[in-house]
């Protein structure tokens, strides 16, 4: 005799799908934002910006692949990328704030990692937006991981 679908299982699946979708949406916005700043506004990315792009761009590509059908195993690959990206973003933001000395900057030529090239509302810089994006992606992926257990 066929079993009726368990409504709790479908709810869990929907919540996990939504969390991964939110993580992808943030990664896609971060990717498009980085391309907009670089290609449209002409702000040359520094070395730390390139490292953050290395961790953000793959998230925008493979997170949606885990949505159809839902595959929460993507967290195994996405979470380390998001955590490393968050580390680079925090380091970049602290470097811009002057908390970390500019002598430790990996930028040797081109645009400077400690230079503020764009700022909104008096505090919102590109590295701070990157910190927010990676933090939100990490929260969404960790919430999915915790719900899975």
Automatic annotation (TrEMBL):
InterPro entries registered for this protein in UniProt: DiS_bond_form_DsbB/BdbC, Disulphide_bond_form_BdbC, DsbB-like_sf
Pfam families tied to this protein: DsbB
Protein's membrane topology: Multi-pass membrane protein
Lineage of source species: Bacteria, Pseudomonadati, Pseudomonadota, Betaproteobacteria, Neisseriales
Entry GO CC: membrane
Protein name per the record: Disulfide bond formation protein B
Organism in which the protein naturally occurs: Chitinibacter fontanus
Membrane-spanning segments: 17-38, 50-70, 77-100, 120-146
Localization of this protein: Membrane
Single GO biological process annotation from the record: protein folding
Molecular function via GO: protein-disulfide reductase activity
Alphabetic keyword roster: Chaperone, Disulfide bond, Electron transport, Membrane, Oxidoreductase, Redox-active center, Transmembrane, Transmembrane helix, Transport
Family statement: Belongs to the DsbB family. BdbC subfamily.
Domain of life where this protein originates: Bacteria
Iron-sulfur keyword on record: no
